[in-house]
Amino acid sequence: MKEIKAIIQPFMLTKVLTALHKIEGLPGVTISEVKGFGKTRRSKEKELSNEGIYEFVPKIKIEIVVRDELAETVVNTIQENAHTGNPGDGKIFVIEVSNVVKIRTNERGEEAI
């Protein structure tokens, strides 16, 4: 099993979700609003706010746990539909998942996703 985490531009969420929804066997998606900064930061003068706290850019985090055979399809779908070609498009992380437990039924492993 793989966990796919993607950090994308908020305005690309609908396009990405529409494409993901078309993948047969996709178990589900978790979406979070997050903030951060990457290598391409704003200029130094704008980086610190009046309070001395860094200004973070709003992003969307998508998290999906899938069977191994779906992982590449999900990654490609996110990459193709979140791509604008501009700095800040985001990142996709693929992480090995050793186990999953479904709380309601106590199912474990792939049956739990």
From TrEMBL:
Q: Which residues cross the membrane?
A: none
Gene Ontology molecular function, alphabetical:
ATP binding; enzyme regulator activity
Q: Which InterPro entries does the entry mention?
A: N-reg_PII (IPR002187), N-reg_PII-like_a/b (IPR011322), N-reg_PII/ATP_PRibTrfase_C (IPR015867), N-reg_PII_CS (IPR017918)
Q: Which GO terms describe its biological process?
A: regulation of nitrogen utilization
Name one cellular component (GO) term.
cytosol
Q: Which domain of life is it from?
A: Bacteria
SUPFAM superfamilies hit by this protein: GlnB-like
What's one Pfam family the UniProt record gives for this protein?
A: P-II
Family statement: Belongs to the P(II) protein family.
Protein known as: Nitrogen regulatory protein P-II family
